[in-house]
Amino acid sequence: MSQPLNQREHCPAAGKLDEEDGEFWLENPWQAHDKNLSAFERNRLLLNVGGRRLVDVSHAGGADIDSDSRGVAVGDFNGDGMIDLVVRSSGGGPLRLFLNRAPRTHWAILSLRGTRSNRLGLGARLRLEVEAPKDSEVGDEPDAAGSHTFVITRELFPVSSFLSQLPSRIHVGLGRATRIARLRVQWPSGHVDELTNLAVDRHWVIEEGGDAVTFEEFRARTERARHKARGAQSDGAPNRS
Amino acid sequence: MFRMRNLSVAIVLLLGMSTAALFSGLIHWPSAPFGVRRPSKGVRGGGQHVPAGAAARSRLRSALVLSEADRRFLWDTEHIGFKIERHVFPAWKAAISGGRLVELGDFFAANFTGRDAAGQLRVAYPDASAARLLRDDGMKVLEAGRPEPPVGPPANNGDLSAEAFLQRLAAVRGRFDAGSGHCRASIGLVRLSPLDRDHFDGPWWSYWKVHMAGERSGMPVEATVWLHLRTSGLDENVGDRRKWIEAAELRAVRIVEGRRYLFQEVTADSGIDVDALYDNWRSDGPFDPNTGGVYVADYDQDGVLDLLIDDRLTGPRLYRGVGDGRFVDVTDAAGLGGLRPRERAQWVLSCWADLDNDGDVDLITQDRLFENRGDGTFRDRTADTNLLITPAAGYAVADFDGDGLVDLYVCHSGPYLPGQRAEERVSWIDGGLGIDNVLWRNLGNWQFEDVTRRADAGAGGSSCFTAVWFHANRDGAPDLLAINEFGRNALLVNRFPKPFAVQAIDPVFGGFSMGVTTGDFNNDGWNDLYVANMYSKAGNRILSNVDPQRYDRTLYEKIREGTIGNKLYLNRGDGTFEVLAGDAIAGDVGWAYGANFADFNGDGWLDLYATAGFKSERRGEPDG
């Protein structure tokens, strides 16, 4: 027999089985077969509605492929500030890449540089405060606490969900907000950095105990440091950035 | 062992969690959980002389076995369900897709009465809270009524004629352009039951989920309608019969309209050689449930995200992001070439982690560890590390002990060392392998210490594909959620150097979990969890036809948990979670695997992309 406590037993059909019509029955799931099993199921795009619901918008999402998908990872792959998708499947197109064509919003990418904490700041908590924009057309209402401040908290972990991994950076959508009024970084070391008035639509690099610089500036600094190190080192040891 | 792992997955799956299973799956559920087999072996025999353990097992078995009559009832009901899906739904799908709903009039009895119980459509999205940062992403969701499945037949005193009832459906169809090319309909049989289970020739009731996807003026439209039907007696010739719908209620309607598709596929222009990757649909080879993954990082620190794509055919390939959505294969130049999977080590798994703490990500792929040299190339450090890089199912990276070095949690779903033996997993429910996950503490200089036992972080010898680090509380130390394929998922609260506190986050059972991801879903400052589980439409339907009073209560609940699909765990901040499931979070994703949060529309709230689908063999054929 087969029941929840025994995977090994066999279970013949209990009644009529119209095999000519395609009806099939596996007496034990271990048996070899060429049947559809949860076949051609569409991947879903679920929209967060107010932090209480997920609504299925898969068709309008445009990425509702019916491949036998496994892993999914996200990130801005074309530099437009919107988050794109890459989907890995065991069948039906092994890898499929989707670019985000939603109306563009403001955004920020935040990378960390730990000094006492681990270098990439994994485990840090980032709290962003942005002013929710006023919208006269719809009569912008403050929230229950009477505030227009919109708070976004993100934890930096390179999440591996299933045969996939996210990058070690935070990418936040900021809608129509044009400044990050305040950014609080709680580092794994326990150190806390507070930064104010950061521009949106930038990739910021925040150093533990230091300030925030744009990624371009960070890169230039790194290059300068590397150059300097190269000049100082005559033994040809590999450089570390 | 890789194969074993996959089979173990397959099993569960098969076991009955499949979705459209009515077809075949139909009876997976009754069979698996409820089937009666070989009664001659004394399932109910018991007797005085059996050892205590055996007696207990025997009692439990009795509690797990439905009577032959109950089992036959479930089978026969599902058999008719199969016939409805096979021979009734195609006519409905064609009529709806083609916008010819009048053709369905033939299915309605002369004395039919219908009711529109859904009422007026209202705007569910964008709503005020969702739209504080963003008023308009081009997406609109309209809703009426509640789609939760009913528990009995609809009233038959509605005020709508068959024509008027069909006009309600036609109005929904009217949101798409005319012509079958603009709307594709599908129907799910959510519930099916005779009013009196001893009289199949008496009235029945059923619940249908009608889904339409298509366009209006080139813009995407999606509509779902939930129909609650009362019919005359049904048999396996239902496909040839007409005029059997006696009463109907339109319970709920949901309409999603977009001004454009949110995503556009660009695979062909991406520069990624996808044809080289293994694809079960193209291959004549054996079905392989897991063929490879995709791992995102900015390995060369140029600001542009790169992809490590591993695969059972090609081995790992490194694609450098160009910045415009295209990628260039730099595997060989980076020193990662020639790593085709070997016969004996054919697990395919990778992970980026800055193990030497120099600010760039190093790489574990297959059975190798590579140091990122910071100049775009990698150096094989496998010989320099004591890290055991063995077959595994997943990695999770964090500095769990706060010493400034990132550590590694390795998920296992099978034996991973030579000579290691798993316990025989017999039970579908709570069945463990006796093989723990492993927590490696980074000591620096590529040396690691296995602290699994000290930290009590093995997650109970379960079968685990995925784990995520996140902050379950405010103590600043990363905690861990490790999923369990066959039982309760484990929340490991980090108290290192004291042992982690192991907490179950599911009241009853996990749900045959496969993947998990984390993010602050409700913007309350706490990271929440989304767990990808099995979902079975057939399982739900069948369970609804089983009297819980006639079954072992705990197991019934566990089986039910295993059919309802994905779940969202809202972190209350005190180590407990509010669990959301079902329609509130569109939990019926399917046979689900990976999922990730991301704010796709840029409104400050994390949305979700979730994958599904196990084994697709032939389009249009019955599914199990």
Q: How is the topology of this model organized?
A:
The complex is a heterodimer of chains A (241) and B (624).
Chain A: E1 44-49, E2 53-56, H1 58-61, E3 68-75, E4 84-91, E5 95-100, E6 106-113, E7 125-131, E8 149-155, E9 164-165, E10 170-175, E11 179-186, E12 192-199, E13 202-207, E14 212-214, H2 215-232
Parallel strand pairs in A: 6-13
Antiparallel strand pairs in A: 1-2, 3-4, 4-5, 6-10, 7-8, 7-11, 11-12, 13-14
Chain B: H1 2-17, H2 28-34, H3 52-64, H4 68-87, H5 89-97, E1 108-116, E2 122-125, E3 139-145, H6 162-173, E4 183-194, E5 204-216, E6 219-231, E7 245-258, E8 263-265, E9 294-297, E10 306-309, E11 317-321, E12 327-329, E13 350-353, E14 362-365, E15 368-372, E16 378-380, E17 394-398, E18 407-411, E19 438-444, E20 447-450, H7 452-455, E21 467-470, E22 479-482, E23 490-493, E24 501-504, E25 515-519, E26 528-532, H8 537-544, H9 553-561, E27 567-571, E28 577-580, E29 592-598, E30 607-612
Parallel strand pairs in B: 1-7
Antiparallel strand pairs in B: 2-3, 3-7, 4-5, 5-6, 6-7, 9-10, 10-11, 11-12, 13-14, 14-15, 15-16, 17-18, 18-19, 19-20, 21-22, 22-23, 23-24, 25-26, 26-27, 27-28, 29-30
